[in-house]
Design a protein that fits this description.
alpha+beta; 6-stranded antiparallel β-sheet; Aminoglycoside 3'-phosphotransferase, Chain: A, domain 2; globular; 2 domains; Phosphorylase Kinase, domain 1
Length: 347
């Protein structure tokens, strides 16, 4: 269940070593590195040196959409959360000087533990699965309870309705990377902003909260670090929670975090209703609204992200060999989003 590594030769070792010696407390060279396989967002590397292991995240190569791949925001977020005790990797330094390795990057600690790629957790017992899912729900509730003003993140997101802003953002991102005309996407771009639900709470939102974006303890359900904060902002906590619940509702088992059809006492994976009840108890909610609009939005946002990957793939800048496989899912994402929109009242 450990992350796969791939050889890489795209970092300037001399310049990087010089920067780390000046900016990372306790660093000693020489260093060697390898790239984490998978993922289409910010290329991520493991760095090993006599002083220990580190992780480096950088912006991708090539032209980028405005506001995308903001590693400086990721760094600011984990630097604010780490002192609170919330499970994130220790931040070591941010470099915004493109001359060091060709783009902005940051360095954080390498957290040793387990990455679980299959939401069905086939290697665990039912009781262990229950404990792991409870830990994920409780950790998400803890994130949403962080006083973002107190940790210096009061300006981390814009005021106003989060979903209204996000629908506008992803519509704009989709338009900026559009390669084909998709009629259902046009309907979604019209329907979603006209039917945005009211926002009742504001919190730090992770933006991609799922089982393979966290590191679990070597044994047991404890979460040592939540990873990949590229899409984080201030917003409606129901964005994170409804996105997490997509694994119950729309993602088939065997596909990364998908557990559709796997819940219940036999597997130990909480049902969707049990997950909602635990999250609501932890956050003081009486319940959650009808989820169809939220599921439609989440799939719409994923379609926007995948469209960006498709554009980068066409331009030759996608950072993963699996980009083509991801892009092939685009029509299905759009169709599923429109299906939930229809269930939410679209016509």
């Amino acid at each position: 269940m450990s992350a796969e590594m791939a050889p890489a030769d795209d970092l300037d070792v001399a310049r990087l070593s010089e920067w780390m010696a000046a900016n990372v407390a306790g660093f000693e060279g020489p260093l060697r590195y390898a790239k984490f396989a998978g993922g289409q967002s910010n290329p991520t590397y493991r760095i090993d040196s006599p002083s220990g292991a580190y992780v480096l995240r950088r912006k991708p190569f090539g032209p980028l959409l405005p506001s995308a791949h903001a590693v400086d925001r990721e760094y600011r977020l984990i630097a604010a959360l780490h002192p609170t005790g919330f499970p994130v990797a220790r931040p070591y330094g941010l470099c915004e000087d493109d001359s060091v390795i060709g783009s902005a990057f940051y360095v954080m600690e390498m957290v040793d533990g387990r990455t679980i790629w299959d939401g069905g957790m086939p290697d665990l017992s039912p009781a262990e699965r229950t404990a792991h899912y409870h830990a994920m729900i409780d950790t998400l509730a803890a994130l949403h309870a962080v006083d973002y003003e107190a940790v210096g993140l009061g300006d981390y997101g814009k005021p106003g309705n989060y979903f209204e802003r996000q629908v506008a953002r992803w519509s704009k991102q989709y338009r900026a990377s559009e390669t084909d005309h998709i009629p259902e996407m046009e309907k979604l771009i019209a329907f979603l902003p006209a039917t945005v639900p009211a926002q009742t709470r504001t919190s730090i939102v992770h933006g991609d909260y799922r089982v393979d974006n966290m590191i679990f303890a070597p044994e047991g359900p404890d979460i040592l670090a939540v990873l990949d904060w590229e899409l984080s902002t201030l917003g409606d906590p129901l964005a994170d929670f409804s996105y997490f619940l997509m694994n119950w509702e729309t993602v088939p088992s065997g596909r990364r975090s998908g557990i559709k059809g796997l819940t219940g006492p036999e597997t130990g994976i909480p049902t969707l209703e049990e997950a909602v009840a635990r999250y609501c108890a932890a956050t003081g909610r009486d319940g959650v609204p009808d989820l169809n609009w939220y599921f439609s939005y989440n799939l719409f946002r994923l379609a926007g992200i995948v469209q960006g990957i498709k554009k980068r793939m066409i331009d030759g800048n996608a950072s993963s060999a699996k980009a083509a496989e991801t892009v092939a899912a685009l029509p299905g994402l759009v169709a599923a989003s429109w299906g939930f929109a229809q269930a939410a009242g679209a016509s």
